[in-house]
Amino acid sequence: MDAYLIDAVRTPFGKHAGGLSHIRTDDLAALPVARLIERNPHLSPADVDDVILGDTNGAGEDNRNVARMAALLAGLPDSVPGVTVNRLCASGAEAIVQAGRMVRTGDATHVIAGGVESMSRAPFIMPRPDRAFPRSLELTPTQVGWRLINPKMNAEWIRPLGECAQRVAEELGIDRARQDEWAARSHELADKAWRDDVFADRVMSVEGVTRDESIRPGTTTETLAGLRSAFTPDGAVTAGNASPINDGAAAVLVSAVPEPHAMARLVASATVGVAPERFSLGPVDAINKVLARAGLAFDDIDVWEINEAFSAMVLSCLHQLPKIPVEKVNRQGGAIAYGHPLGASAPRIIMDLCDQLRRRGGGYGIAAACIGVGQGMAVVVHVD
């Protein structure tokens, strides 16, 4: 039995403290779920077998299984269950893949999958004191990165992700100029995609927010060159060639029923582990593995989406995968422009991949993402 992506919708991706930051995370997750049901009146809400959402933080309003909360808040019957998964930056892809497995095995017919993240609303946390009446208490932010680190962890593993990506890029000879060029390309292509109205049927308006807020039209390598290093004094990774902090949610209807308007068929997926400090190369092994699993070659892939955590990361992967034509990668820009609301990012690239394939008349596509703590994931889809 095959699994099909029938329909998908997402919120705009709001910038940090931007137009979506006043919306509770569980309410944000419910928005595309409710819209997906509204857009597909042939599907009775009671026929949804499960709701699976990726969510990376889980420390605030997304605690206690945000997928179940979103299902209830979206008005689904209380008979519809929900489960939340966390594979960091690929959490939303993991949700879609798990939904596909349920459909393929006959455990479900219709599943809503996707992801959510409100990085603006990520709370501060405080560890439980080791003794009564501590003299001081320290609050830790949970927006991004490590927190409450286990002292047994290798020091190399827990370096900031930007610094890790920067080190790998330096090792491969990828300089600041190339990274800034890729970032400028991302903004230019994302702005063009919006001006070309390619998201008209995919991105829902939310309280007056109608467009991804982090896209900066007119971004040039010259303006990016003026930004200071973000992680080390003289490093190449800056706020301009890294993905920003964002808020957003996405939902995809995965079904066993190959409806005429289906977006795509799920073909294969692969997840791999790499050394945590070399997380930026995670997509390399994942792509090689998923191609072998699907019985495909690089030349068989018509469109590539590689989630842009950092320019350094995408360029490092392309350096290691020279058979991928650069012109086929992120042709509508990437997360450096759109933003990277962690749980919702991978569903966005899968949606964009399917839509690009459909506009070109079909073919195979791969969506891939690096994952913190040393993993990579890749998903193959096919459009007839």
From TrEMBL:
Keywords: Acyltransferase, Transferase. Residues 262-382 form the Thiolase C-terminal domain. The keyword Transferase applies. InterPro entries: Thiolase, Thiolase-like, Thiolase_AS, Thiolase_C, Thiolase_N. SUPFAM superfamilies: Thiolase-like. The active site is at residues 89, 340, 370. One of its GO terms (molecular function) is acetyl-CoA C-acetyltransferase activity. Residues 4-255 form the Thiolase N-terminal domain. Pfam families: Thiolase_C, Thiolase_N. Its EC number is 2.3.1.9. It comes from the Bacteria. Belongs to the thiolase-like superfamily. Thiolase family. This is Probable acetyl-CoA acetyltransferase. It comes from Stackebrandtia endophytica.
